[in-house]
Amino acid sequence: MRILVMPKLKLAHIHPEIYGNFSEHLGRCIYGGVYVGENSPIPNVNGMRTDVVEALRHIRLSVLRWPGGCFADEYHWKDGVGPKAARKTMVNTNWGGVTEDNSFGTHEFLELCRQIGCKPYINGNLGSGTVQEMSEWVEYLTNPGVSPMADWRRQNGREAPWEIPYFGVGNENWGCGGNMTAAHYADEYRRYQTYLRNYGGARVHKIACGAGTSMTSPNYDWTETLMREAGRMMDGLSLHYYTTPQRTPGRRVDATNFTHEEYADTILKAAFIEELLEKHGAIMDRYDPERRVGLMVDEWGTWYDVEEGTNPGFLYQQNTMRDAMVAALSLNAFNQHASRVHMANIAQLANVLQAVILTEGENMVLTPTYHVFDLYKVHQGASLVHSAAIAPQMDNGVRQLSHSASIDESGAVHVTIANLSDTDGADVALYFDQCALQLQEGYLLAGDAHAHNTFAAPQAVRPEAFDRVAVQAAPEGTSAKFSLPRCSVARLSFA
What we know:
Largest sheet: 10 strands, mixed
Low-confidence stretches: none
Number of helices: 10
CATH class of the largest domain: Alpha Beta
Shape: globular
CATH architecture of the largest domain: Alpha-Beta Barrel
């Protein structure tokens, strides 16, 4: 199997925001996942778990989306600010019917982003909220001057405004966000965004609700309508795609107990993201040839059956090497389409769906998906370079190798490669055109497709140094040869 890399042919800037995450008020993502409160015996700073924050800083988490998800279009932000003892409670009707005390609200979320060092992406309530409510939230967040909302922010302990680079105008408004048609939502988006003002010279990038997709329902019409009717009024258009293999109609496969056939089906469904990016991107190109409007894949990841014995509304699932392969494949695809994909947010941060972190009381586990993000972080802010692979197709029709390549400001060339097969290894020959390079470092994440980390064995799956690479000069370039085991992800850096 061969991969050609042309480091001198730069194609696009890889936005760091492609390596974003999503934190919804869902199950134990917020409460217990990232937030334990100031009085918790679990080590924390201002209520945020120290271990979780440090882990997210390590992978350079770039942007974090909050408060939802379906939760966003039932969330009324004013209930989550001010003295915590005076905040209203609310019933989370979407996820488990639990009553929340709103102790984690706007100030807490932005404190979490400060500690992590990531950009905030706030999702406003269009489904059950009002134009005034959304407009006043932006005013509260960003106005440095004198106004009712800015003054209220100061009363609540925050003198200076926050920088809010991204604001979502509703979520999944074709479904849980109001069951709207594309035309109706386009009109609503145009109306709501009008009143999201820019204050004090800062600019809020407005993200419109995009299509919810599946292999059987790619929903290209939604993108067509939104770009035609409102494209000039948006900075980004979202796209949601979940990898949801089913064991039987209406029943998803298990997170850890799955067959080879179910593994293959998972990879097939994950690989469909490539077609979605190409075809939704092509529609956007017709209305936005300069690619000013970013395609924001702000919900993506695997969705299996919930773990036995857990609240079905909490969407808690384990995370195996199968999930690592989905993450590697998806991030490679986002890198390859970086000229259009400006952001991506895996679902979700902790204890929900394809989480990068699992927590249980004071204990924390880093998942195989977390380790993929760790390996791939070198691509953030680098330039995508031209590359092409020759690899056989597996029985499911998906090419065995997934890859992407970039060059950073120092001139280091980074190549990430996933061997998607759960049965066969891969002998790989890399060729770097018109470049004399040496291997600087390499890492390999590998294991059986079912391998995962538990609280009893938190280090069962982790990256290891990988230097079994034969590098030599080749005609007008450099070759590097190595073997990848089945179900593995490698990152190789050359200079």
